[in-house]
Design brief:
Flavin_trans-like; 6 strands; transferase; prenyltransferase; single chain; globular
Length: 201
Amino acid sequence: MTLPLIVAITGATGVVYGVELLRVLKELDQPTHLILSEAAGLNLSIETDYSLEDVRSLATEVYSNKDVGAAVASGSFRTRGMIVAPCTVKTLSAIANSFTFNLVVRAADVQLKESRKLVLLVRETPLHKGHLELMTRAADCGAIILPPMPAFYHRPQTIMDLVHQTIGKALDQVGVEHDLFRRWSGHRDDACHKTGMRLSA
């Protein structure tokens, strides 16, 4: 049996990361349990053409952020981990301080206490010292801090190429196989890829 992955979408800009993560996981036939914060619903209407129902339909199970008695609120409910995409600084702060005032933070806290993977796509810039200290505190508790920082070695052609590289890195952390971007294989091999030439050893 494949354990479900918890996906949380919070109210930071970049809800496309969470939506595309859900779409890819559904395509890969990976079960997902979704928590949408209230602000995430607002950002969906601002940043995308998706409705709340469109996004909910991509997940296997959907929970209200107010449902602190949901299955994912307990460590006895087994999961393969959790990805928060995107993750607001407010959510980061609550996780770093174990302030479990909603289901997103409670489910994240469960991942940490059960030594499961918790990946936070923290979306804010610039970062002041308080933000950095919160990241350090969360990392000290076991969270993986993975801000959506685009890479360019894979020669992205579209915005979605950049999105896929970030969510691909997040999926790597929780052990989900994918082919969302071309991986780095060394500068010699990369030169061959770009020129079509073979380099001798």
